[in-house]
Specification:
homodimer; 167 residues; mainly alpha; Arc Repressor Mutant, subunit A; 2 domains; three-stranded antiparallel β-sheet; 3 strands; 69% helix; globular; DNA-binding
Chain lengths: 167, 167
DNA sequence: AAAGAAAACTTAGAACCCTAAACATTCTCA
DNA sequence: TGAGAATGTTTAGGGTTCTAAGTTTTCTTT
């Protein structure tokens, strides 16, 4: 048997202590882990992996995208996208087709099976979100959203600057 | 040559659009990725991997911990900790020793080399933090910290509940 | 004191994401 | 129009983390 309560307490006490300024990164990372784990365990009940969820969500909005476009939307590198989509094709969620006007691009379309997953999976993500932010004022969520977006922006600019100047 | 600016713009535009409520998770995850990448590229200049940084930081505060204790502090599973520490021992950053009073526990101590990394690495983490939160009011950072902590708490409780009730 | 539970470590195997580089196709422009 | 740049996909390989299960040691309880 596990003793999840004790573990939970240890993790939380860890965070309630004096938290030096440079540990915001650690906090963001832990939140990601919590969110990922919560969704992952729910998706698993339908046999869907977290990595595939990312692409399904994009494709439900709009399919027929190229792998490059999917990479940008998902914020992942091409090889990551490539291997996920090959696996998803094998599972019957998507098809990967070259269209007549280009022999270079690979266009990705949902199958019926892939499209049908939406009805089961989306409520799972909504539940996780609901649990995570329960009781928090909308204004604080909005602030958090803005802060995170600003951080992402700053870090993306830093990365771009390093790619340029740092050679 | 890359074109990092265009990629950056695509990522940021993506986020500035109408963001449905359930995408807070996505935002948190992107922030983690940005923070991780920024620190990772800096650590790489000293030949240190991100996974090792996590444990070095804990050990600089207090060494002589067991692997189990390190797992809890780092918020990682035991096998993750185990393989990181074996690698770190091979690199000469730490030693793993059994002490006379227990043949079960493995205690981890920094070597001189491991301890010496602190002076070079900590400023890198501080720089990343500074870049990320530049210009943001302290009050908004504090709110973000509180919101993230609450989310972690909710998700940890949910996970514990599932372990218990869910068989 | 011995059986069984618990704790700590280790092994095995998989998922996910990355960088670097090769390859194929398309575009640009001199 | 043809050389080189740019774009998009694919291959190869590595890092980080996880779950599941095995081993060893220690603790608990009768």
């Amino acid at each position: 048997m596990k003793k999840p309560e004790r573990v939970t307490e240890t993790i939380l006490n860890h965070w309630r202590e004096a938290v030096p300024n440079d540990r915001l990164a650690h906090l963001v990372k832990d939140a990601t882990r919590g969110l990922t784990r919560a969704l992952q365990s729910r998706l698993a009940t339908e046999g869907v992996s977290f990595g595939h969820w990312v692409f399904l969500r994009i494709l439900w909005e709009k399919d027929g995208l190229t792998q490059r476009e999917l990479s940008l939307e998902a914020g992942l590198m091409e090889p990551t996208t490539f291997s996920a989509l090959v696996a998803m094709e094998k599972l019957g969620y998507v098809t990967r087709r070259k269209l007549p006007h280009s022999r270079k691009n690979v266009y990705v379309f949902l199958t019926e099976q892939g499209r049908a997953l939406k009805a089961k999976l989306v409520p799972m993500a909504e539940e996780v979100n609901r649990i995570a932010i329960a009781g928090l004022p909308a204004s604080e969520i909005a602030t958090t959203r803005r802060v995170l977006l600003t951080m992402i922006e700053h870090l993306a600019r830093d990365e771009a600057a390093q790619d340029q100047g740092g050679n």
